[in-house]
Write a structure and sequence with these properties.
Elements: E1 8-14, H1 22-32, E2 37-43, H2 49-57, E3 62-67, E4 81-82, H3 84-89, E5 94-97, E6 103-106, H4 109-119, E7 128-132, H5 136-147, E8 152-156, H6 160-173, E9 178-181, E10 191-194, E11 218-221, H7 230-237, E12 241-243, H8 246-260
Parallel strand pairs: 1-2, 1-3, 4-6, 7-8, 7-10, 8-9, 10-11, 11-12
Antiparallel strand pairs: 3-5, 5-6
Helix pairs in contact: 1-8, 4-5, 4-8, 5-6
Bound molecules: NADP nicotinamide-adenine-dinucleotide phosphate (NAP).
């Protein structure tokens, strides 16, 4: 890749930085569509976020930046505008810098997630979904699932209060979906989604008991690394359809390209 003064520059802001893959995925995507755009991860500590963003605002060849753990929520106070989707989810994962230097945040996680299911021919409309996790990504997937027409959505989380708060927020916005928080047996669901970080480390326990889940059900794990988590390996061995986190990230690339286009 040749980076010149004509190249559009983007960054991915993170702390820690080692796990970041979005920059590589973005560089590969923009290279594949012949766009002269280069992306670098930058290691930004939470206390420095405001200073870094104020500086990015002044850099005229910066077209935008991605934000990941732990900046997705705190970034909002440093932006000029956020989209309705980002407001609903309460988090931003991509920011565009307009030609005038305004910073606009969006959240593409939900649309990327639903697009990844559609690419694997997994229908959400009228389906019964068990979601594990109610963190930043879990908020996005829950709103995405309701928007996509899930008939029923049960949200389970270690911190039960967060699951209840998310269920209430989704139910208020999407009354057609029956949303609740609590525990449930995975075998009675069409789609089981892990949005927790359990599975990133090899010795993590499974985020959900999938005993009895087999053919006819889909298990999705949004963890990107490893590409096949223990949950997915177990689900595949039981005959379920499985989808990892990479398709969700990949699906966001076309959305980013459209979002940052000036
Ligand atoms: N594929 C993609 O495009 C994509 C996009 C975004 C995120 N992700 C991945 O999604 C995962 C979560 O990210 P996030 O931004 O939502 O993180 P987060 O906001 O920190 O949320 C973490 C979630 O995991 C749960 N959790 C963490 N440790 C746990 C444990 N020991 N036992 C039970 N539950 C535990 C948390 O439960 P509590 O609420 O109880 O703490 C919470 O629900 C990460 O692996 C991230 O890389 C993937």
């Amino acid at each position: 890749m040749e980076i010149t003064g004509k190249t559009k520059i983007m960054f991915v802001l993170a702390d820690p930085i080692d796990h970041v893959r979005a920059s590589a995925v973005m560089n590969a995507y923009f290279g594949s569509i012949g766009d002269d755009l280069a992306v670098s991860p930058i290691h930004v500590l939470p206390g420095d976020l405001g200073h870094v963003i104020a500086s990015l605002r002044l850099m005229r060849n910066v077209f935008g930046f991605g934000v990941t753990i732990p900046h997705k929520t705190r970034v909002i106070e440093h932006l000029d505008e956020i989209t309705p989707a980002a407001r609903l989810i309460g988090a931003v994962n991509f920011v565009k810098r307009t030609a005038e230097g305004c910073l606009v945040g969006d959240n593409l996680d939900a649309r990327g997630f639903i697009a990844s299911l559609a690419q694997h021919e997994v229908a959400v409309r009228n389906r019964k979904v068990l979601q594990v996790g109610a963190g930043g990504a879990g908020r996005a997937t829950a709103f995405g699932l309701a928007e996509a027409g899930a008939r029923e959505l049960i949200i389970t989380n270690r911190d039960d209060g967060k699951a209840h708060a998310l269920a209430a927020a989704v139910a208020a916005h999407y009354p057609a979906t029956k949303v609740s928080a609590g525990r449930a047996e995975a075998r009675s669901f069409d789609l089981i989604v892990n949005t927790t970080s359990l599975g990133m480390k090899p010795d993590d326990p499974l985020p959900v008991d999938i005993e009895g889940v087999g053919a006819g059900a889909t298990v999705s794990d949004i963890i990107v690394n490893p590409a096949v988590t223990r949950l997915l390996a177990r689900a595949a061995a039981q005959g379920a359809k499985v989808i990892g986190g990479n398709p969700m990230l990949d699906a966001q690339m076309a959305l980013v390209a459209r979002f940052i286009a000036r």
